[in-house]
Write a structure and sequence with these properties.
The complex is a heterodimer of chains A (about 280) and B (about 450). Chain A is an alpha+beta fold. Chain A has 2 domains: about 15-95, 3-methyladenine DNA Glycosylase II, Chain A, domain 3; about 100-275, Alpha-Beta Plaits. Chain A has helices at about 1-30, 35-45, 55-65, 80-90, 125-130, 145-150, 175-180, 205-210, 220-225, 250-255, 275-280, and strands at about 100-105, 155-160, 165, 185-190, 195, 230-235, 235-240, 260-265. Chain A has a two-stranded antiparallel ribbon. Chain A has a two-stranded antiparallel sheet with strand order 2-3. Chain A has a two-stranded antiparallel sheet with strand order 5-8. In chain A, a hairpin with a 2-residue loop joins strand 6 (about 230-235) and strand 7. The longest helix of chain A has 27 residues, at about 1-30. Chain A is elongated. Chain B folds into 3 domains: about 5-30 and about 140-285, NADH-ubiquinone oxidoreductase 51kDa subunit (Rossmann fold, 3-Layer(aba) Sandwich), CATH 3.40.50.11540; about 30-110 and about 290-360, Ubiquitin-like (UB roll) (Roll), CATH 3.10.20.600; about 375-445, no CATH class. Helices cover about 30% and strands about 20% of the residues of chain B. In chain B, a hairpin with an 8-residue loop joins strand 5 (about 70) and strand 6. The radius of gyration of chain B is 22 Å and the shape is globular. The chains are: A alpha+beta (about 280), B alpha/beta (about 450). At the A-B interface, helix 5 of A face strand 7, strand 16 and helix 14 of B.
Chain lengths: ~280, ~450
């Protein structure tokens, strides 16, 4: 009987002792946390994608509370969530333009030449170390889908044309695809910059067209047609100047013989796969 | 039958490694022939490790055989010479065996030229070391074993390091290849002479020529011409015995420290082909304009050892050797470390030791790793390839680097033994490439920040 009493007594004593330690710790060691932190964290997406430049959502929330970033810098959360955060914190939504990943290659299967069959491991990075895969164009997309695997937001789908299709609505501009691409073909650009060069080959003339039907052959028509100096030819490819005095317009695409320079309204490759060949040569 | 007496009873070698079938018989006994001249030669400016060469000719220039086409583009870079007399038709982007398109000098052969190659001999004794290194750099010499590392950089021993031993690597452990073998059998005097030039240049005490025991004729021939300072040693037939680190373990029982060079042990290593080319450069004044290439495999009718002018298109050589219709894969180099090609319109480079033409193979199938550790037992660098490949695949290259990924020299023994058919060495290469790219990015960033700072 006495053993039970002793045991209960000891446990109660221990419990009271640790409770007092916790009480003291709560009183003297407590960390002051901004009461708004919890609410902001709830409104942030919680994906820790890093697209904002911070290591994760928690760090971004702290920066928000410190007023060193704007709610709009989070490209992942919805417009509604961003407005709610801005309203809650009493700041402007701010942030840059919506941005999206784009592929600097339009070399769909059948349009770009194929020299050999690559039978090894189905990964772009692995193929890139074996003679750069089997496609004729050494600058073009390998089409083995490392970007699709790298995308945490299911914003990239490998199409039947062998190219990664970026879904603009799902893309959060986190740059994971451009980090993983061994040929560095993805660029993340503001959606509003609609003129885009869909080729990375520096070759010119028939040399370029010999490798790929939709290659930029550096004819320079886009540079002539674009207003002012908005499009220039540099190293066999057009370079679009968005900062200059002249706003690039759709006119730069009108006389492109291969369709390498495009005006993007929405997705980059919206064409149904079965119509790809026809549509790709639409302006020929 | 050549006697093996006099060789060590128990052959020297390293630990681990593999024993792939040799396949050397079709070409081992064939004397070196000259490849026919073709109409057009393509000379990429980047044929070696390091900075690309800088062209000194213009399209339209006429050049003689052996004339300089390009100067070194830096210290880790070498000159490039005309492999034939002819006219420079263009300097443009051409397909390189790496799969990229790189600036190349295109040379059209003068069909009426006698294609004579002549030069002034230089006595290495009259040159100081810097002059000799300059001569080697401007002679266009790179390691002919496959890596194409500029020879003069290897010979530029840094302050405070001493070279005691010169080791010439005649192992040729890659299956199929016999070009080094034939050089040793047919030009033993040049090999030994080059060895002596290197030793005198660096002030070494002794020289060694390591040859795998499957080339007894080469060992015998070299021994008959070798002076007392040059020791010809047979080493066990095992892959990758020809890796310089493995050869040093076999010869001296010494391991090169991780991340280090044989120079850290006071040893200089060089390939036999390079050594013979060094002798040609000093004694005959000939720059590197041609090399011996083994053309072999079941995909060609007539396997051969050919002396090929640098820049000859692979297609013409394969046609000369009777390309069979069943040929499906062409590999530049050996089957273990060579580079498969997507196009035959690439030129033979200074580092091309073989053209291996193989018939079709079944589609590779990959199964999950069963943790059998055969790759661990095969790896000559005592790495854990399965673990490294898993880390690279999971995009954790930093962790792989902690497990010494950068010590891997891509011999392919792990892929060869893997019963699950996992392309382990391919993952190693991906990981190494990622780490190098990251290092380059970090360096560029640091440079940009340094430029921004006042």
């Amino acid at each position: 009987m006495s053993a039970v009493v002793t045991a209960v007594g000891i446990m109660t004593g221990l419990g009271l002792f640790f409770a007092s330690v916790l009480a003291v710790a709560y009183r003297f060691l407590r960390v002051e946390e901004d009461p708004r932190y919890e609410t902001v964290m709830e409104l942030l997406p919680g994906t820790n994608c890093g697209a904002c430049g911070e290591p994760g959502c928690g760090a971004f929330a702290n920066q928000l509370l410190a007023d060193s970033v704007e709610p709009g810098d989070c490209t992942v959360s919805s417009a509604g969530d961003r407005a709610e955060i801005a309203e809650f914190l009493g700041v402007d939504v701010g942030g840059g333009d919506a941005r999206v990943a784009r592929l600097r290659c339009g070399g769909a299967e059948g349009l770009v030449g194929r020299l050999a069959a690559y039978k090894g491991r189905g990964s772009c990075r692995a193929a890139a170390v074996v003679d750069g895969g089997g496609r004729a164009c050494p600058w073009g997309c390998l089409g083995l889908g490392d970007c699709e695997d790298a995308c945490d937001f299911d914003a990239i789908v490998m199409g039947a044309d062998g190219l990664p299709h970026v879904i603009p609505e799902a893309c959060v501009a986190c740059s994971d695809c451009s980090d993983v691409c061994p040929l560095d073909l993805f660029v993340v650009e503001p959606v509003e910059q609609r003129l885009f060069v869909q080729c990375a080959s520096p070759l010119e003339g028939s040399d370029a067209r010999a490798l790929c039907a939709v290659a930029c052959d550096a004819c320079g028509r886009c540079a002539l047609d674009g207003p002012g100096e908005s499009v220039r030819m540099v190293g066999g490819l057009p370079v679009i100047d968005w900062q200059g005095p002249d706003e690039p317009t759709v006119e730069a695409t009108f006389r492109c013989p291969t369709g390498a320079i495009v005006w993007l309204e929405g997705a980059q490759f919206v064409v149904p796969e079965e119509d790809w060949e026809f549509e790709g040569r639409r302006r020929a | 039958m050549i006697s093996l007496a006099g060789l060590r009873a128990r052959a020297r070698t390293f630990r681990q490694g593999i024993h792939p079938p040799e396949h050397k018989a079709p070409t081992a006994g064939l004397p070196i022939e000259r490849a026919p001249f073709v109409d057009e030669y393509v000379l990429p400016l980047g044929q070696h490790i390091g900075a690309p060469s800088v062209a000194v000719v213009q399209p339209g220039d006429d050049v003689r055989r052996g004339d300089k086409l390009a100067d070194p583009g830096g210290f880790v870079s070498v000159a490039l010479h005309a492999p034939v007399a002819g006219r420079v038709t263009a300097i443009e982007l051409r397909l390189h065996p790496s799969g990229r398109m790189v600036p190349s000098i295109v040379l059209r052969r003068d069909p009426w030229s006698s294609q004579q190659l002549a030069g002034e001999p230089t006595d290495p004794g009259t040159l100081d070391r810097d002059e000799a290194l300059r001569l080697i750099q401007h002679g266009g010499l790179v390691g002919l074993g496959g890596a194409a590392f500029p020879s003069h950089v290897k010979l530029a021993v840094p302050e405070g390091k001493v070279v005691d031993e010169v080791v010439i690597n005649g192992c040729e452990c890659e299956p199929y290849l016999t070009c080094d073998h034939r050089v040793m059998v047919e030009e033993p005097a040049a090999v030994v002479r080059g060895t002596e030039i290197l030793r005198l240049l660096l002030g070494g005490k002794r020289s060694w020529i390591g040859v795998e025991l499957n080339k007894p004729d080469a060992i015998e021939t070299l021994k008959t011409v070798a002076p007392s300072t040059v020791e010809v040693v047979g080493v066990e037939v095992k892959y990758p015995q020809g890796a310089e680190k493995m050869l040093l373990v076999a010869l001296f029982g010494k391991e090169v420290p991780a991340g280090g060079l044989p120079l850290d042990l006071g040893i200089l290593t060089n390939n036999v082909g390079t050594t013979a080319a060094i002798a040609d450069l000093f004694d005959r004044g000939l720059p590197l304009v041609e090399r011996v290439v083994t053309v072999t495999g079941a995909g060609v009718e007539y396997p051969r050892n050919l002396r090929v002018p640098i820049g000859t298109p692979v297609r013409t050589i394969l046609e000369h050797c009777g390309l069979r219709p069943e040929a499906d894969r062409v590999i530049l180099g050996g089957p273990m470390m060579g580079a498969p090609q997507k196009s035959l319109d690439v030129p033979v480079l200074k580092g091309t030791s073989g053209l291996l033409c193989l018939p079709g193979a079944p589609e590779p199938t990959e199964f999950p790793c069963i943790r059998c550790a055969r790759c661990v037992r095969a790896c000559p660098m005592f790495l854990n390839p399965a673990r490294l490949a898993r880390l690279v695949r999971a995009e954790r290259p930093d962790e792989a680097a902690e497990h010494h990924l950068m010590s891997c020299f891509e011999c392919g023994s792990c892929s060869y033994v893997c019963p699950s058919g996992i392309p382990l060495v391919q993952w190693m290469r991906v990981g190494k490439q990622t780490l190098r790219a990251e290092a380059a990015r970090a360096k560029a960033k640091a440079a940009a920040e340094a430029a921004d700072a006042p």
